[in-house]
Amino acid sequence: MDNTAVSHFMTQPKLTSRQARWQELLLEFHFVLEYRAGSSNHVADALSRVADLASLRSVAALSSSAVAISIRDRARELLSKDSAAQGLVHLVE
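Above: the chain's sequence. Below: its structure in token form.
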């Protein structure tokens, strides 16, 4: 974990009622809370950025569709200048 305060949770002298309930539940398990600086805790960092990933996917989808449109437009432009291609286009239509 990258939150140093949480590493002291199990040894805190004063807890809110909610914290006390969590502490009671957690006492049923054997685990060690170990502090790691955020810069070296890549897994937690990746999990905390899940919301960012969704927005990045949206941007990527928009970017790829813009690229596809520009490629299509460029292909149409080049085909319109190629007389052999124009003959084929007229045959297909």
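The first helix runs from residue 17 to 26.
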